[in-house]
Structure formats: C-alpha cells, structure tokens
Amino acid sequence: MYRAINVGERIRYFRQLRGWSQETLALQAEINPAFLGHLERGLKSPTVKTLEKIVAALNISLAELFAEPQPTTEAKEQILTQIQNQIKDLSEENLQKIMVILQNILSMEK
User: Fold this and answer.
1) Which of 35, 49, 83, 102 is the most buried (most CB within 10 A)?
2) Could you report the per-residue pLDDT of 6-62, keeping only the tens digit for each?
C-alpha cells in the first residue's frame, strides 16, 4: 500500500542522525540554509536537483530518503550514530574497505 513520505521530515531525520545543523547540511549541499529550513518544515518543495545535492551531502541514496522509516530503539540509534561519527572523516578508499567487510559479515548471517 502506498504511504506518502514527508520529504522534509526525512531530510531532518538524516541531518539530525549525523548531528548536523541546518547550516552544516546547507553548506555541504550548496543550498541556502533558509531554503533548507523551509524544506524541513514542508513550506517549500525541492526540485530533483536539490534532492540530489542533499542526498549527496548526507551520503545516502534517493531510495533511502524515500524509504519507509524503520522503527529503531533509542539504543540502536545511539549505536548507529556512534558508528557514523567514527567513520565520517575516513577517506573514500577506507570507507569502501569497511563496506566490503560489512557486506561480508552480513552475507554470513543469511
């Protein structure tokens, strides 16, 4: 069944997950901070180009942005935030290595 996704809320969720202010995300995405605030509050609608900039800055895909939010516990959110904070400044090469390791671990669980 189709359920509408509030894009502004999803942007805010991923921004806050990273511990970023609106200004930080706006700077990373090269958009106006006031416009980002309007997006998050649902006062404005983003173009596809703007969404591409935002998801690139957040290092997520458009699919992740529009995906149905999965319920998580506060403890799980804290762990995910800790992981992200530890790896966010790594080089792209090291992030790729971590991704391969993670994929190998997850494939063993199946």
Assistant:
1) 35
2) 899 999 999 998 889 999 999 999 999 999 999 999 999 999 999 999 999 999 999
From the number of C-beta atoms within 10 Å of its C-beta (0-12, 13-18, 19+), residue 81 rates as middle
pTM of the model: 0.63
Please list, residue by residue across 4-40, b when 16 or more beta carbons sit within 10 angstroms of its beta carbon and e when fewer do. Answer: eeebbebbbebbeebebebeebbebbebeeebbbebb
- Nearest partner of 6 among 35, 34, 33, 46, judged by Cα: 46
Q: Which residues, 6 or more positions from 28, have their beta carbon under 8 angstroms from its beta carbon?
A: 20, 57, 58
User: Can you name the CATH fold of 1-70?
Assistant: 434 Repressor (Amino-terminal Domain) (1.10.260)
Q: Where are the domains of the chain?
A: 1-70, 72-110
